[in-house]
Amino acid sequence: MRLFLLEDDDAIGMGLKYSLEKEKYEVVHVRTRKEAQEIFKEKTFDLCILDINLPDGNGYDVCNYIKEKEDVPVIFLTASDAEVNVVMGLEMGADDYVCKPFRINELMARIKTVLRRSGHGKDSMSPEKEGILEIKNVRIHLNEAKVGIVDEIDKKEEIAELTALEYRLLLAFCNNRGIVMSRNRLLEDMWDVNGDFVNDNTLTVYIKRLRDKIEKDPANPQIIKTVRGLGYIVDK
Hints:
This protein is of the alpha/beta class. Helix content is 37%, strand content 22%. It folds into two domains: 2-100, 3-Layer(aba) Sandwich (Rossmann fold); 132-233, Orthogonal Bundle (Arc Repressor Mutant, subunit A). It has a five-stranded parallel beta sheet with strand order 2-1-3-6-7, with helices on both faces. A four-stranded antiparallel beta sheet has the order 8-9-10-11, with no helix packed on it. It has a two-stranded antiparallel ribbon with strand order 4-5. The radius of gyration is 19 Å and the shape is elongated.
């Protein structure tokens, strides 16, 4: 699956390209409006990630150019969360809007949601409401970055108070359901564009805290399971 990335900040652009390629996406990264328009004369893409502020224009211009050629899903990246900017992007046909600084795992989840919504890509999770992922009785609201626990009897949902790092850890598991996640892989996924870093001892603490908040019996976890000697897994 081919993704188009327009980002003029080399540090962010290269970091995103590396992370996306780890997820087996083919990524074309450009830095200017001119480069973007030249690329779209030759290639087609499954999804576009567009920065707003560019050295020779803005991402809105590129979005208009793209939408005139084909109906490809678009996610905007911006340093501003002003309502007028969000509305402008959505009115141009954007599918989502992510503000900097952002979490890599949240962006990955949003990409997968947009691709599923547009009919592209594999949906490794059962069909669910747009912007919502479910694991057993845990419901993740991606657009609001919050997590609910659904009561098995009355089906009422209670919001779990997760920290930002706990939320990112849960998304890392969600994006890799059915795959054993080693501690090293989890540590890599907890590292984001802000340079935040979680060490091995801290990871143990966060996994315990996350289990305490989402598992019915944290001492006998049924969602985040330990694979002895290898890591952890969340079943499909």
